[in-house]
Design brief:
Number of domains: 2
Helix content: 10-25%
Distance between the termini: 90 Å
CATH topology of the largest domain: Jelly Rolls
CATH class of the largest domain: Mainly Beta
Number of helices: 3
Order of helices and strands: HEHEEEEEEEEEEEEEEEEEH
């Protein structure tokens, strides 16, 4: 065999070796790609399963996904709402801070809030006259050095049901954290059949137990029948850290729970949570809030909100 023949065979062998190597590398790459796709599929399945709502639960306002749970965030600066882990809460919570001058939007107070419940597809979840009988759960923890808002007409709200913006009225329902926990209502006919030129103000009601229990989480459950007339009702329950039983702290039956103006259609209401206080305070308000949960039964909402019914 001459040199030319040997060189030809060597070239052919090298070509075959390179082709084999390329095919092997391609096969390995395809296998790796398949594993990646499978792992992505598994991860997606896990995420999808985790995001599925429990039975009879319509909404969980997870703070670690507030951009998808809530439609809007109203803060003066980044960091006013932080997602943190707290060992006394079963899920990540929102650490809310409102600083002096945080008058977002130019309204009458200072705030750091999220607003507008929505589902996983981005569809709004408002409250209307057709919302029927619902339950809501939320827990709040105030620091041991808590200072209540001050001034001639102080107020501080951590959960509120807002009526149609065109009314420019106070919240239909508001849970307040000030010198105590209490509830404020401004529902029914805002102009009282035309007797008023401007919407009526709020009426505040004390809880049978409004103790702030500073440094410890306090769980609240709302039992609401939605109506603009006297067929509505609202009951508030409270449970402190270490307790197993719920205590009824407020009850209003045969009362409107939605706002309207006589002669007009009952408009859409929406929820907000965070902290909203009056102007003029020279200190920062800080509090921790669990995800707000909305649903159709007391037990299922409490379990989703607090890890136990």
């Amino acid at each position: 065999m001459g040199p030319a023949m040997t060189q030809s065979n060597n070239a052919a062998n090298l070509s075959m070796f390179l082709m084999y190597q390329q095919r092997t590398l391609l096969a390995i790459t395809m296998i790796k790609l398949l594993f990646i796709l499978l792992s992505l599929g598994v991860a997606y399945s896990v995420i999808a399963d985790e995001s599925a709502l429990p039975v009879n639960v319509e909404f969980i306002g997870s703070w670690d996904a507030k951009s998808s749970a809530w439609m809007h965030e109203q803060v003066w600066a980044p960091g006013r709402i932080k997602v943190v882990n707290d060992p006394v809460f079963p899920k990540p919570v929102g650490l809310i801070e409102v600083h002096p001058g945080d008058d977002v939007g130019g309204w009458s107070g200072e705030r750091a809030e999220v607003s507008g419940m929505q589902d996983a597809q981005g569809k709004p979840l408002p409250v209307t006259a057709q919302s029927g009988h619902e339950f809501y759960g939320i827990a709040v923890k105030l620091p041991r050095d808590w200072k209540a808002p001050a001034g001639t007409n102080p107020w501080g709200i951590f959960l509120q049901l807002h009526g149609p913006d065109t009314y420019r009225a106070s919240p239909a329902i508001a849970l307040n954290a000030e010198n105590d926990f209490h509830i404020s209502l401004c529902s029914g006919d805002l102009l009282e059949g035309g007797k008023r030129a401007k919407p009526k103000g709020v009426t505040s009601y004390k809880f049978s137990n409004g103790n702030l229990n500073l440094g410890h989480p306090v769980e609240f459950m709302l039992d609401v029948v939605w109506a603009a007339d006297n067929t509505g009702s609202i009951i508030v329950y409270r449970r402190d850290e270490g307790q197993t039983q719920w205590d009824k702290v407020f009850e209003a039956r045969n009362t409107p729970t939605l706002q309207y103006v006589a002669g007009e259609k009952i408009g859409v209401h929406y929820w907000k949570t965070g902290y909203y206080r009056n102007r003029g305070n020279d200190f920062t308000s800080k509090l921790w809030l669990s995800p707000a949960v909305r649903g159709l039964t007391f037990e299922d909402v409490a379990k989703a909100a607090f890890g136990r019914p």
